[in-house]
Design a protein that fits this description.
With 700 residues, the chain is of the alpha+beta class. 18% of the residues lie in helices and 33% in strands. It has eleven helices and 36 strands. The protein has an eight-stranded mixed β-sheet with strand order 29-30-32-31-33-34-35-36, with helices on both faces. Strands 5, 6, 7, 8 and 9 form a five-stranded mixed β-sheet that branches. The longest helix is centred in the C-terminal third of the chain and has 18 residues. The protein starts with 44 loop residues before the first helix and ends in a 6-residue tail after the last helix.
Length: 700
């Protein structure tokens, strides 16, 4: 994982008007909001599902160029934009090219220096009999156009743990697993300096340790800490040394029974002996502290937020201090301790409103910055901010079609679950039905489930469904991340398919009581854990849900646990369910008899996390139980799709959203007789009509 924070993923700069770079915008006095007007007409699914036109911008150290992910037709391209000269972007990789070389995915990238781009590749392969994500790094020379694999020779499953970038000397400090003939060390990391130009190892810095499965280095390139975890016992061990001439010694052991992230890990090693900036949740919520790593004593608390976890601290360029803190309440936010960044942040907030402007990247001297502007219901617009002159120029838009248009309103609410626990949820309201109540509702359930949450920001799936006329609710049900350790433990205690499932029911009852939605017009939709929750809803509560849409879910939990025991170890596999009477009882595929809500099942054949067999087992179980395809269930396999968003092409996004829209239109129409706007109802989206035919969904 790269160390510096960067933007959301996305991608289409071939249509980006780079000439706009030369046009400065006049900032409105005390505007308190971002530029942009409400979108007048209904937006087609084909437009909403498009790959982002521009995203993941990262400024070069000298501030003259930016790395960007861009949309090239149905897939991604990765390019360099010249911010001063304009011209055609310099593409250094495309998704299709990577697939041709072995189904690799470009996962991340950053500037190593003004000449070299460093990027990370993932692929799913067989490693010593185990199905594993294989990670590699490569460099791209912007002067010659050549791409060089970095220390791939003799590497096993992971050769991509970047500890430090030394751009001044064209090298990186890399931790990787190496096949040296000793099988005991095949999955243990050694640390080496690697040359960016040749890809060759320059120097061995740290040999593998038989128990260490991860290393951390300070800003000078000295390996200071090792991390060990036992996948069967769950014990985590921390090893530390003060300097390069000392031996490592164990300074802490913890066992994280509830998967809440115990122990402390350094964010920044300070120049003070043995002192570091760390994150810890020992007080119930994750906060930022100073700590002595030699004794593992936590000292001064530097930053915390009441009721929420703090994500991290933001390191300075030398990685021996911090500039501020990253956290999220209803939306992702930053708090700056550096006076320059604090002043700029205050200016941006005054001009564009609280949390609407975000510094996403900066030059080494902080004279130039890329700023993202967006309200919760806007896609991002990217601007180049020249700090000395105050020039503020548009680079481009996340969507070429929607640009800075204002879409369906988004807000965070709080509701009480039926057992009294307070839960935050994100609500997206259909802008084309403003002022109406008793509307149909779709509960869009996030994945994870533990450690993950939704925010009051633009969400492609929520916006797509709201645009069809539905209220969309994204509950951060118990077990979700960001709300402290006890909230996660509440989810762990009651496990999959029980109390966590009730939270999804309760939010519909809450908004029904307020008159916003009609609980008798409710469906559920979700991916990963959200796919499981949707299938469980169809099986457990068919009288409550008119339909469900399940993507990439786990439907046979005993089968998944057996798979995970080799993948995660016997301890790690216990994340699935704790409070359920048995995994069989909460497995939809093992309870296919009886009444079910109609369910649409979508899964990627290349899913690296949840095997395609999970979807096939559910489909076959429904068929054996006498359920009718096209009526009681529909089934779609996506041959190229994986589990996470970087694997999604535009075609796969559109299939998912159009299929969901068609299934909703069949079983839970957005407009019914008696609605005030029934006579003004729009026709079914063309993409949804095509998917209805493909899935044999009739009567809509």
């Amino acid at each position: 994982m790269f160390s510096k924070s960067r933007t959301i993923r996305g991608a289409s700069i071939f249509t980006l008007a780079l000439s706009a770079l030369g046009t400065a915008i006049a900032l409105p006095a005390a505007a308190q909001t971002t530029p942009g007007d409400p979108v007048a007409e209904k937006v087609p699914l084909d437009t909403i599902a498009a790959l982002p036109a521009l995203s993941n911008l990262t400024l070069s150290p000298d501030g003259t160029r930016a790395l960007a992910t861009i949309g090239a037709g149905d897939n991604f391209a990765y390019a360099i934009i010249d911010l001063d000269k304009g011209g055609k972007p310099q593409v250094f990789a495309t998704a299709e090219t990577l697939k041709d070389t072995g189904d690799r995915i470009l996962w991340d990238y950053e500037w190593a220096n003004d000449r070299y781009v460093l990027f990370e590749l993932h692929s799913v392969q067989n490693a010593y009999g185990l199905r594993a994500t294989v990670r590699r790094l490569a460099s791209y020379d912007t002067q010659t156009g050549e791409t060089t694999p970095l220390a791939w020779r003799d590497a096993t499953s992971d050769a991509g743990a970047l500890l430090m970038t030394d751009g001044d000397n064209n090298r990186i400090l890399l931790a990787r697993m190496v096949n040296d003939g000793n099988t005991e060390r095949a999955f243990r990391y050694q640390v080496e300096w690697v040359d960016l130009a040749t890809g060759k190892v320059i120097e061995l810095v740290q040999r593998p340790n038989p128990i260490v499965d991860g290393w951390a280095a300070d800003g000078k390139g000295v390996v200071r800490m090792g991390f060990a975890s036992d996948p069967d016992s769950g014990e985590e061990r921390y090893l530390y040394r003060s300097g390069p001439d000392e031996n490592f010694r164990t300074v802490q052991k913890v066992r994280d029974e509830n998967f809440v992230g115990k122990g402390i890990r350094p964010i920044v090693f300070l120049d003070e002996p043995d002192m570091a900036i760390v994150s810890s949740n020992h007080e119930g919520y994750r906060a930022i502290y100073k700590a002595n790593l030699a004794t593992m004593e936590i000292g001064e608390k530097l930053f915390s937020v009441e009721g929420y976890d703090v994500s991290s601290a933001i390191a300075n360029e030398d990685e021996n201090g911090i500039l501020g803190f990253a956290y999220a309440t209803d939306r992702p936010r930053r708090s700056w301790t550096d006076p320059v960044f604090a002043q700029i942040s205050a200016f941006l907030e005054e001009e564009f409103g609280e949390a609407n402007a975000r510094i996403v990247s900066r030059s080494d001297d902080n004279s130039r910055m890329i700023v993202s502007l967006s309200r919760p219901n806007q896609l991002a617009s990217y601007y180049l901010y020249d700090v000395p002159t105050g020039d503020f120029r548009v680079i481009g838009y996340e969507s070429d079609a929607i640009r800075d248009g204002v879409m369906n309103p988004v807000e965070a609410i709080r509701y009480k679950a039926s057992d009294g626990l307070e839960i935050e949820a994100i609500v997206t309201r259909p802008r084309l039905r403003e002022g109406q109540g008793d509307l149909p509702v779709v509960v869009l359930t996030h994945g994870g489930p533990y450690g993950v949450r939704d925010y009051a920001t633009y969400d492609q799936w929520a916006q797509a469904i709201a645009e069809q006329g539905y209220v969309v609710i994204q509950p951060n049900y118990r077990g979700s991340g960001g709300y402290g350790t006890e909230f996660v433990k509440e989810g762990r205690k009651d496990g999959f398919g029980t109390r966590m499932q009730d939270d999804l029911n309760d939010v519909v009852d809450h908004l029904d009581a307020q008159g916003l939605v009609d609980k008798d017009r409710a469906c559920m939709m979700g991916w990963s854990y959200g796919g499981y929750a949707s299938a469980r809803a169809a099986q457990r509560d068919p009288d409550r849900w008119n339909c469900t849409i399940a993507g990439a879910g786990v439907y046979d939990l005993p089968r998944m646990k057996a798979y995970d025991q080799s993948y995660l170890g016997s301890f790690g596999a216990n994340y699935l369910a704790e409070g359920a009477s048995s995994l069989t009882d909460v497995s939809p595929a093992r309870n296919a008899e009886g009444d079910w809500s109609p369910i649409l099942i979508v899964h990627g054949v290349r899913d690296p996390r949840v095997p395609i067999e999970q979807a096939r087992v559910l489909r076959d179980a429904l068929k054996r139980a006498g359920k009718r395809e096209g009526v009681d269930y529909a089934y779609l396999e996506q041959p190229k799709n994986g589990h996470h968003s970087p694997y999604f092409t535009k075609e796969e996004r559109l299939e998912w959203l159009a299929g969901a829209t068609a299934w909703l239109a069949k079983h839970n129409p957005a407009y019914v007789a008696g609605d005030a706007d029934y006579d003004q109802r729009p026709p079914l989206d063309p993409a949804a009509s095509r998917m209805a035919q493909r899935l044999n969904i009739t009567g809509i």
